[in-house]
Amino acid sequence: MTLIQTRSGPMSRAKTSLAALAVALAGITACASTPDPDAQAAAELQAAMVEAMKPATPEEIEAANNSDPLTKANFWSKEYAKDAENLDNALTFANALRGIGSTERAIEVLSEVLVIYPGEPRILMPLGRALAVNGNQLGAARAFEQVAVADPGRAEAWAALGTALDQLENHQGAQAAYDKALAIEPERASTLANYGLSLALTGDLTGAEGKLRQAASTAPGDIRIRENLALVLGLQGRFDEMQKTSAGYAPDAVVEQNVELLKDMIQSAPAPEASREKTAIQAAASEPEKAAPPAESTGLRLRRSGG
């Protein structure tokens, strides 16, 4: 029997090397295809963050705006956190905060976004109102003044400035601001009414009556305007007219009580006449209602008009 011996030639060795390389590559590929748990978790977290930072859909916004004030504020808090530089989000969030009585936080939000949009009237107007509600009439006046100077044709800004100045007892400046507002919108009832109060506080009861009557004719259903007109008539000693003006929105007992109360105030207030009238107005503004009229009825008090 002849034994045949084989030798490992170059071709054989090459085949062996290729086979080994294939095995090694297969191992590497297998390792690469095995998922890394840490990397996968990081990718999922990143995807979740991207999803969470997406703006709300129109449907979500509508649902939030139609919900209760606290839910609405929480919703816009999240939207504001997603993009603190978005002016619309900041304004809506601040308005929602005021809706739940969180005025100080609203001031913070508006002040923060004002740094990004300096001098922006859309920020300054609600900021001024929030400052006024919070008792900072000087800050409110400054905010409204910036808007009025930047946009002199904006009646809303001049009217708000007048109200803030009246609160600071700068009645002359307030009346100048009301004049500017009314030059732009002559039939602006709230401005006419507040102008009337300002004139009453400076002792000009005739002028106050004129402004309040004009306001009442423009907005006949505004109870606050009728209250103030009745008060000004009473301060002039025209108590019958005061009662007629008050009739229809307050119980007869409350109207009669207010007339007697005002008579006592005028008689007991110190002279001179202008000082006596102003003292009576100030007392009426803070006089508590002794009766308990229905919610839509009121006692003797000054009431500023909004807007």
Automatic annotation (TrEMBL):
Residues 1-32 form the signal peptide. Pfam families: TPR_16, TPR_2. Keywords: Repeat, Signal, TPR repeat. Gene3D superfamilies: Tetratricopeptide repeat domain (1.25.40.10). Residues 267-307 are annotated as: Disordered. The keyword Membrane does not apply. The keyword Transcription does not apply. InterPro entries: TPR-like_helical_dom_sf, TPR_2, TPR_rpt, UCP035836. TPR repeats lie at residues 155-188. This is Uncharacterized protein. It comes from Hyphomonas adhaerens MHS-3.
